[in-house]
Structures are given as C-alpha cells and as structure tokens.
Amino acid sequence: MITVNGVNYEIPAELHARKLSDWLREDLMLTGTKIGCDIGVCGSCTVLINNEARRSCKLKLKDVEACEIVTIEGVSGPDGGIHPLQQAFMDAGAIQCGFCTPGMVLSALALLIKNHHPSREEIRQALKGNLCRCTGYQQIVDAVELAARTMYHNEI
Amino acid sequence: MTKAFRNDAIAKVSGTAKYTDDYTMPGMLHAVPLHAPVASAKIKSINADQALKMPGVLKVITAADIPGSIKFGQIIKDYPTLVDERILSTGDVVALVVAESRAQALAALPLIALELEELPGLYDSEAALLPAAPLINPEHGSNICNYHCVRTGDIKAGEAEADIVVEQDFTTSRIEHAYLEPEGSLCHLRPDGVMEVIGSMQHPFSTRRFVASTLGMELKDVEVRTVPMGGGFGGKDDTAALVCARAALCAFITKRPVKLIYSREMSMRESYKRHPYTMQYRMGLKQDGKITFVKVRMVADGGAYCSVTPWVTWRSTVQCCGCYEVPNVHCDVYGVYTNNIFTGAFRGFGSPQVNWAIEQLVEIAAEQLGMDELEFRRVNMVKQGSCTVTNQVLDTHKVSLAEVMDKVLKEIDYETKRKRCSFGDPLGDKWYGIGFAISYRGMSLGAEGVDFNSAIINVQPDGSVLLETGVHENGQGAESAMILIASAELGLPVSRIRYRMPSTSNIPDGGTTVASRGTLLGGGATTNAAKTLKGIITEALQTHMQRKAEFFEAGNILDSTKEVICTWNEAIRLCYSKQIYPYAFGVFQAPRVSWDEATGHGDAYFTWVYGCQAVELEVEPKTGKVTLLNLVAAHDVGKAINPDMVKGQFYGGLATGAGYGLFEEVALKDGAVVPTNYHQYRIMRATDMPEMTAIIVENPDPTSPSKAKGIGEPTLEITAPAIANAIYRATGQRCPDQPIKLRKL
Questions:
Q1: pLDDT at residue A153, as a whole number
Q2: Which domains are assigned to chain B?
Q3: Taking CB atoms and an 8 Å limit, are B652 and A130 in contact across chains?
C-alpha cells in the first residue's frame, strides 16, 4: 500500500516496476509533479516520501511500498488553504515560469520540517538539487526564509 | 515587505497550473521523432515496415506525407519539418512514429531502417567561408547566411591618429537555453476544420505560421492557444514551433488528437543554441584615452539553418563597439552555415558575445595607456546627445550610463576593493578580484522588422474587465505587468481585471514576445487601449450625465475638483443601458527606425537602456576554482511596473550570465550535441550563486506610453565580462575565450 496525499492505494504486482513519477502523473492525474530531465538531476519531480525530499523519476512503486507520499497537490495550510510556504513563494516573487516551483516547494518543505530556522546557506544547500533557470534562486531563498519566520515565529 | 503580484502564482505554487504535457484528450495518440544519426548525408530510403508491425503503431510519417511546404523559416525558408532527402544536422527529424501510447511509439523508433549515403560535413565556420567549401544550403548560393557591416568615419584617419593600437581575438561559447520544460505540443483537428494547437512555445503567431505552412492551410484555419510554459529564454521559437507543426501534421493525417512531447535528450539534441562567435578586434587610442577607431571582424556559427541568424548578428553589428563613442569604425559581421546544430535566439541576442569582447578590450586598452578602467570608460562612454557608431543621436530619452555605473560602483565599494585585488600574488592562498562591465542596448526589434502590438480591454456588464494583448507569458510575468498597467490607468484593483489567455484567432498578430519588448510594446498597447476606453466612458458621462470626467481612481470616476461623479460600476451600467460598449482596442506602433545596409548607418532602435554589473570573486590558486562572492547590478528600466518581477529578471539574468562566463558550453562532435541531459550540462545551482543586489533605476521613457522599457535581456549581457575582468584582477590572467579556462596557476 502507498499513501498519497492521505489517500491509500493498493498496488498490484504488475505495477511494482512502474515509475513513481509516471504513476503520479498518468494514473493519479497529479500533474503538479513535473518531468524536466527524467534522470534524477533537475529536481522538478521532487515529492516528499516520509517527509524526505526525493526524486520521483528515480523510484519504482515497489521502492515506496508502505510509504507516505506528499505531492504538491497535497501541500496545504492548517486551514486547508495555501500553505505559509506557498504563500511565501508568492509574496517573495519566487515564481516565474513555475515549472520548478512544485519541486522547490517540496524540497524547502522537507528542510523546514527538520530545521525551523535555517540560514540562507542551509536553504541553498537544501535546494541544491532543484534546478531553476529563471530566478537565479535569490527570491526562492528569500521565500524559504520568510516562510520559516511565518511558520515558526513563536519559537524565536 | 511589499508583496509581489502575479496573476498565475496560486496555480503555479499549488501545482494546478497545466503545462502542455499535463493535458490529455480522449482518443489522443502519441508521436515521437526519429532524429538523423549523422550530420551530413543523403537519404536513400526510409523503410518503416518493421516499425509499423509493432503493437499500437498507427503511422510512420515522413516528408512525403506533408500536405503543405516541407521547409519553413522566419527569414529564409530552409528549415525542414521533416527531412526529405538531404540531412544537414543531427537535429534533423527524418520521421515521426504515431502510436496509441508514447511507450509504443518509442519502442518502434529503432525499427525504422534508414539507408543513408554519408557525406563529408563542415563543422568549422572559418572553413565554411573558404571558396572551395561545399555549399551547405545550395539554394542559398553561399555558406554566408548573411553579412552586415558598419562603415563610419575614416578608418585610415583613425589609424593615423592613434598613439597606441591594441589587438585581441575573442571567442564565445555555444550554450543551451536549459528551460526546465522540454518542448511539446498537443494538437487536434476541430469539427469546424480548424487545427487547434497548444504547445510549449514562446511565439503563438510564429507557431501558427509554421503549422499553417506545413499543413498548407490559411492562418484563419489554425488556432494556437497559449498555456503556461516552463521557460523559453528565446529558445522556444523555431524548434518549439516545428514541434507544434509536427504534432499538427500527425493530427491532420490521423484525424485524432496527437501529443508530441520531447524528452530532455530530444530537446538538447535538436534545439538551437546561442551562436558561438569568433571576433578579431583592433582598437586605436590617443594618449588622453579617446578611442580613435575600432576595426572588427566577427563570425557567428549559425549551424545548418538560418533561423534568426541575420537578426542576431545585426544586433552585434549595431552594438559592435559597446556603449562607447567611436568616430571611425570598420565592422564586418558574417553569419555562417555549417553542419553544426543550428543557433538562434537566446536571451541577449547577439549582445552578450560583443560585450564579452568589448568590456575586456576597454580594460586592456586602459591598462596599456596607464589609465584606470573607470576613467577610460568615463572618457569614452555615450552621454546625453552622443552619436552612436551607426550615426544615431541619443536624445529621445535619458542616457543614464554614468548613473547606473556610479550606483553599482558605490554599492559594491569598487574603488576601495579594487586595491585589495590579488593579481595572482604567489604568496596568497586565495586570490580576490573585483570587476565590472557596462552596456547599452537598443530596445525591442529595431530595424529587424515591423514592431507593433495591440491590446483589447473588454469591460463586462458587471464592471469586471477582460484584458488581452499580443504579448505571450513566457514565465517572466508579462500578464501580471499588463494587468498592473491597466489597473493603474483605469483606477481599478487588480482583482477586477482578468488577463484572458489569448488565442491567435482573437487578438491580432503582435509579433513575437522577444527582444525585451513585452512590457514596452504590450504595455504601450494596454496603456493606449485604456486611454481609448476612458475616452468612451468620459463621452458617455458627458452625453448622458452632463459631467466631465477627469480622473479614474479607486473604482470611482471624478471630475476636475476630485468630486466623485459615479462609481466605475455605475458608469459601466450607464454605458450598457445607452447601447455603448465599454470595449477598446489599443495599438502601440514603435516609433520609426531606419537602417542602411550598405553603410551600417541609421536610427537602429527607437530607445535604449543602460546597465552596469559588478562582481566580487575568489579564485583558489591550486585548483583554479572560482567562487562568486557578490553580484551587484543596476539597470535603467524606464519605469518598474512590477518591481519584484523586475528584480527576478535581474537575478535570473545574472545567474545565466555567470554560467555563460564560467562553465557553460555545449560541446559538439561531428556536429552532434555531446551533452544529452543535465548530468552532462551544468547550469548554476542555488549553491553556486552568491547573494545579489538589484538596483532598479527609473528614468521614465518619453517614447514609451507606459514609460517602461525592457529588462529581460540587459541583465545577462554583461555578467560574463564582469566576471572575466574580476578574474583578471584576481589572477593576472585575461580570459578572451569562453568558457573561462585558467592556465596552470
């Protein structure tokens, strides 16, 4: 069984070798997971697997048996609306063509789950595996900083 | 902190934005291309018998199946949708396999048997210029795709006057656009006979021309609708349009919807790159620092097809001396056909190459004169009222070159820090360097072609507004900028304005969204449409309420004393009740430009922008590893419509510009692209980039209705030479060749 965005899916044996990214996009119609290189280098297909950022194009369904997967469609705030991290991407001007954005958000979310107050350098390290050709990364780093402040302001 | 505005932000950040590959249609087939295995060959036969026996395969389509023209192109029609007999490049597509699934189509691909007669290829642009060289495109009659020149002043007098002459050769890299979304298209033939196209492409109107030409249809019978696109940077023009044309061809033949999605490997193999240049510069100087002449020859490798090589090299011609006054100029620029992968539009468009050379050359020259690089630039840079090398007087707008330069140098504290530079100090364990570069840039298309755009503002009976323009959303935020311009003109909140995803069948052809012309041309049309609309409403209020409207503010319409006449909604209701449509069509026609091809003289562009970028970096002496420490940029944008998105353009341009200088290069082997995917083609990562400072300079431009100019391209045309100049101050080594390779330290 695989859980995707809180929904459980039984996986028949003939699907074990199916690529996770293809299954998400084609079978579950979760097209927010993007394919940029399909060889695990660009990070556009990043999803959370048990809260770790992983490249879905490098995984087969059998690799994620019994895992909890979150795709960009499963990211939402406490009230079910936009997550503070997504809001920060919008507010900081971190979005241009948007193709890398789902993967960026999920890599940043994995970081913020573990590290509530990352430095800019730590943010850059966490986003190192996500390529972006539009933004030069600066406003994406700004967004993650802003999100950390919003999400964990009571911890400061 | 101000919040950035983007109309598409929620969709993009929540994963609901639908790009081409995210769409499906009932009964949809999948197509894949078969690329030529070699760069130069004659096709003797194509046998698809085995491929057609594979499960799910419906068709193998070749050039013989094309109902319209096999070849198309924006300038010279030399680019084949599918190759009929002569392979000229490893990016050529020989056949398309159409199957029920993509996997089935891919499985059949290797079973197509090609019988080829291999022919010698030409892979060196200088060799292609030799008289004995075989012709790449015989119908063109020459391997010189195009030639431009500038002949200004008297080059012999300039030589005679010079106290010192410096000479230097430069080369630049062929680089990949590396948009994150590869090309793709989904087409279907509608019951009304219209071929409907969506695709990952920058230019709906250009795409429509490619599709119509391939299918032998009229433009009215092809409708290109736009969907979000995952990056373009100039790169989703010809190739992307042809991918759409091929998908449309498959849909036309099979009478079913067809999706054609490129893998990264297909994209890198086939898509055009930035032109690599070789440049030989000779510059004369007086002891007081004045440049007396520049003589330059440039050769741009255009690859197998023309694409927009004549336009790219034209910009290099106009800007051949950088942003400096030079009284005597002799410039020859050649775009050359080879069997290499072709080259075309890439953000910057012929200026990054020239600036790479000139911004290093002026520093070499200054050093030889014993003058500092700041003073040398100040003596020679264009100022208000200066005459460019093509005899254009810069007097229609504020010439802000000194202003942008001063702002950057002050912000980065250049004059203090330049004293700390290492110059390859043998005792240093880390070498520090600082460098900068400046430029001017002609805005929009200039004398490349017709340059106009339109906007439609269609106010609905409830007062909400539908806006569309002939500008395409490439990811840069064009739609948001148009909404903000309309919002400011009409005095309405952005929430009341929807940018309607335009279709080529609704808005007139506004040309291509290139040349940093989106905000300038589309914004001009939007401003003019809003003014027309306000005129319609003002007249209605005068006729039916006998009130004179002066201001449109905060959802109200006010008279000259700022008394509210009525709300916006009331005014719109009045219009509809009196049978008046609150609908306006606005046009912005670029002011006149001129060009004389024989002399290289003319008012090449109707306005110009000015920029300066500086960089601090460190070089590790043992390994030659370069670490960027700081990047500062100032660009005059006329007026910043959406400041956060303007900054986004700064940062993105700086990052690509830095990669261009430091390490990006598409290696070729016998004309074929060596890197197949991102693991073999490195672009800047988050950890490669330093913190950046973006200084927006605003000198509202009188020739622009919205007062805004462009920012997309200026930001990546001077980063690489700024880095080269900083590396010189760190290591003592000049870097005339891209990408920068330091000699053993």
A1: 86
A2: 9-119+177-270 (3.90.1170.50), 277-446+596-731 (3.30.365.10), 452-589 (3.30.365.10)
A3: no
